[in-house]
Amino acid sequence: MASLFIGSFQTPSFPVAADFSPLKTNSHAIVRVLKCKAWKRAEKHFYPEKHFYTSVKLHKQYMTQEHVGSSDGSIIAEDKKLKGRLLVHASSEHSLESQPSKSPWNSVHDAVDAFYRFSRPHTIIGTALSIISVSLLAVEKFSDFSPLFFTGMLEAIVAALFMNIYIVGLNQLSDIEIDKVNKPYLPLASGEYSMQTGVIIVSSFAILSFWLGWIVGSWPLFWALFISFLLGTAYSVNLPLMRWKRFAVVAALCIFAVRAVIVQIAFYLHIQTYVYRRPVVLSRPLLFATAFMSFFSVVIALFKDIPDIVGDKIFGIQSFTVRLGQERVFWICISLLEMAYLVAILVGATSSNIWSKYFTVLGHAALALLLWTRAKSVDFSKKTAITSFYMFIWKLFYAEYLLVPLVR
């Protein structure tokens, strides 16, 4: 209803100054009338009249609704919309007032902030930590910490981060309408980035990732990037036989394959076979990391949809949360993680290395207790509380990669 008031209005027949002039009771009031008339002349000179008269009519309409519709909930809702539109018009039409210009520093800050949100930093941190952790599993003695090791690990991290930005960016390009409901703060959903800008960023980082993987010359690294590219594309793109995120099981398998298998095994082989030139050996710590992160990847795949239930329902994404409900999926995730921590404690207890035994048992026990304590305090009626807990799950994910190299 309020939108009908915006657009082409006829010039009102009443004098404009009548709506703005105060009661002429003293000299101050007379000055204000003169200022209002001067403002009218300036407005006609600098701006199209239709914008000025639109604001006048909006103002009259808003005042009418505020007094007439206060008892009707729907009218009040329209009243708020109209008031918001009035404020927008007023602010745009009073641009004759001095406004501070944006400094170059503010522009740079805004650009960095938009890209920071676009890149989904929690996934960036998770990818970097996982590669560092898995690379350390290939270290057998102190002399293995050579410039060659750090160079190989850095090459893997940079190439993987480029691919990570491609995957999360492509997902945002495919989900703009959904993100307007679930994540309106993302640059594409908020309008900070145009579709063209998003396509350029995503394409550039995919090319950079493959270029770096190719010039490095490591086949485990290149295949890790290529498989991640295929799964990330099939997960998001709305093409025939694709957009696998619509199907809960397939979506979970995609995240499982990337986070639990590719990251663990491919990047380990990159260090083991390409950097150290050693034969392929699937060590006990590597098998533990792969198994544990399998649980964690499934939990992340399930949990990421819990805060997004509203948008997923609207756009027909049949996630487990949409099918089973938020609270039920939440406690399934908690149960899976607690089981994983219990297995990790048992693995640590059977270690022949004393310091490894203490660190892995105590570390996983502490994380399991922290998870359970935090889970019991979540308020399911607040999306912010659920989203905050999802970020807490990622922090546990980071903490696990600090413990994985200690498993011996």
TrEMBL record:
Subcellular location: Plastid, Chloroplast membrane
Keyword tRNA processing: no
Transmembrane segments: 124-142, 148-173, 193-215, 221-241, 248-269, 281-303, 329-349, 355-373, 385-404
Top-level taxon of origin: Eukaryota
Keyword Endoplasmic reticulum among record annotations: no
GO MF terms, alphabetically ordered: prenyltransferase activity
Family note: Belongs to the UbiA prenyltransferase family.
Protein name: Homogentisate phytyltransferase 1, chloroplastic
Protein source organism: Capsicum annuum (Capsicum pepper)
Organism lineage: Eukaryota, Viridiplantae, Streptophyta, Embryophyta, Tracheophyta
